[in-house]
Design the sequence.
């Protein structure tokens, strides 16, 4: 699944040659590899800018079975991100709603002092900035001068949509040479056009957090990608037999990320009598070095490929069999739709989209599927029947009538109040019972919920990667300060001992959450290696005895 592959699919016999469905197509899955000589000299660095949505909807639960709000989950995620950043980088945090705020006037050097200041501000962030006005914050970020030799990596978190999607995407595209954009859509209401578009134009990666998915693993995966080498000057070249040519139908490659798939679709035209092999070469520049990856593939569509999808020996291939063709059509249709939105109503563009959609059976904004029931052979009689969702219709009708009675309510405010009223009612229905379960202290104030043990330990890590031997660490490990000090090997320094214990606890107790803490653990390991301790195996063994774990020294990277 994670190896470079190429799949060639023969065209539809009944389709006109020269059309997408009539010609063979190839789908290339690239998994770029960077030379070891380049990677060995690479030190992760960069300017990391985080842009967080603080509009009112971020106060909604992360999903309907959760008691944690989206803004609270985003705060926890920012904690993990900030603790996982490499020493020597720069960072800043922006938040937006009806207005925008930032932690530092300009990106600050990553240090314990600046990290502590940023985390304090993050703890104070709530969903209290009103609407979802992202553009002004983006323009301010892009207006800041880039830091030499520190590639800018932009992380954007939002749960909604904006009224100026095209303007925002144009702004990201205009600055694509100076940064990579990683976008995150929180909840089912996040605009896929906005989230995917920002990542596409910014040469990064898009992620969606829906249902009961946790935000932290997906965001940390994107941070790993952001810490990779910055690749530029990407070009593709085909080596095909004489008489055969390839026309690329997928959008141009703006970025290459090691271990992350990039798809290339192409239409093959012409015929060859003998040679059946083809080759695709991808050339790029990484850290000033010229690199290339090659993929050799068979041009002949494998026999039986269509049989798997339901080939009928007595007739032509059903349209649903042409999986690769339809994926190519979908990619091309989406690209043409984007172009059409940007330039307006162009008859030729619309005609081409409609032709592709009808030929391939892939829907577009200008076509629709029509269901026809032929099971009984009788024509459908009577008028079309209009059906309503009774629960939602009554709810919205009641809210609308109440709002329309207020002459001072503008159109924009009406929809905001509709959403607010709907959110309150649905929250009362789905989450009302949980409100009764809140625990109150003697002064009738709700208690602050207990923090996740992993996040508690992470919050105590120093920017350099180490932990300090103090009562807070002891409590996070479920021990007393006396236990930690009494079992400390005589030759071990306090911060070294504390860091070893924290690493053992992560590997021994939180192994299922390794995707979330792996980067900050690597930073701790690098810090320990720099100490060049000679008795590290004995200290790890002592830590295992104290914490009741069985973690090997090699597993800690030591």
Sequence:
């Amino acid at each position: 699944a994670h190896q470079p592959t190429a799949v060639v699919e023969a065209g539809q016999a009944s389709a006109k040659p020269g059309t997408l469905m009539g010609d063979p197509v190839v789908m290339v899955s690239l998994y770029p590899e960077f030379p070891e000589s380049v990677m060995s000299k690479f030190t992760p660095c960069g300017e990391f800018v985080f842009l967080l949505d603080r509009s009112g909807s971020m106060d909604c639960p992360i999903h309907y079975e959760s008691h944690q709000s989206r803004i609270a989950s985003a705060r926890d995620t920012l904690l993990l991100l900030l603790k996982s950043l490499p020493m020597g980088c720069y960072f800043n945090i922006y938040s937006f709603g009806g207005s925008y705020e930032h932690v530092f006037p300009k990106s600050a050097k990553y240090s314990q002092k600046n990290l502590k200041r940023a985390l304090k501000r993050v703890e104070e962030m709530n969903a209290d900035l009103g609407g979802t006005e992202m553009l002004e914050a983006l323009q301010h970020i892009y207006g800041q001068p880039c830091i030499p030799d520190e590639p800018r990596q932009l992380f954007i978190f939002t749960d909604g949509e904006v009224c100026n999607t095209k303007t925002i995407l144009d702004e990201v595209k205009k600055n694509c040479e100076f940064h990579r954009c990683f976008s995150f859509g929180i909840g089912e209401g996040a605009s896929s056009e906005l989230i995917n578009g920002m990542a596409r134009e910014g040469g990064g990666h898009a992620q969606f957090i829906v249902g009961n998915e946790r935000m932290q693993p997906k965001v940390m995966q994107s941070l790993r990608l952001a810490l990779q080498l910055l690749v530029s000057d990407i070009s593709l070249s085909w080596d095909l037999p004489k008489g055969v040519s390839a026309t690329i139908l997928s959008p141009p490659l703006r970025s290459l990320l090691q271990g992350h798939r990039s798809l290339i679709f192409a239409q093959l035209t012409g015929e060859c009598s003998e040679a059946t092999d083809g080759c695709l070469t991808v050339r790029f520049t990484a850290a000033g070095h010229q690199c290339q990856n090659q993929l050799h593939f068979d041009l002949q569509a494998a026999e039986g490929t269509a049989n798997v999808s339901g080939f009928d020996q007595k007739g032509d291939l059903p349209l649903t069999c042409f999986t690769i063709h339809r994926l190519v059509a979908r990619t091309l249709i989406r690209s043409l739709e984007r172009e059409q939105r940007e330039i307006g109503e162009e008859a030729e563009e619309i005609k081409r989209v409609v032709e592709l959609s009808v030929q391939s059976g892939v829907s577009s904004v200008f076509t629709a599927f029509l269901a026809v029931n032929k099971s009984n052979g009788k024509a459908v009689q009577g008028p079309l029947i209009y059906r309503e969702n009774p629960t939602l219709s009554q709810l919205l009708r009641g809210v609308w009538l109440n709002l329309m009675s207020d002459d001072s309510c503008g159109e924009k405010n009406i929809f905001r109040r509709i959403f607010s009223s709907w959110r309150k009612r649905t929250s009362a229905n789905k989450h009302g019972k949980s409100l009764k379960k809140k625990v109150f202290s003697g002064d009738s104030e709700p208690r602050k919920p207990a923090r996740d043990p992993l996040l508690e330990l992470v919050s105590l890590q120093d920017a350099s990667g180490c932990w300090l031997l103090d009562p807070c660490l002891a409590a996070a490990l479920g021990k007393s300060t006396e236990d930690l000090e009494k079992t400390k090997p005589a030759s071990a320094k306090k911060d070294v001992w504390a860091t070893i214990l924290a690493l053992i606890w992560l590997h021994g107790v939180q192994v299922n959450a390794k995707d979330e803490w792996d980067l900050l653990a690597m930073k701790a390991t690098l810090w320990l290696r720099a100490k060049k301790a000679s008795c590290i195996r004995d200290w790890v063994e002592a830590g295992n005895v104290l914490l009741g774990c069985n973690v090997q020294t090699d597993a800690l990277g030591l």
About this structure: Confidence is low (pLDDT under 50) at residues 303-317, 398-413, 420-447. The chain has 18 helices and 14 strands. The two ends are 31 Å apart (CA to CA). Residues 339 and 345 are 10 Å apart (CA to CA).
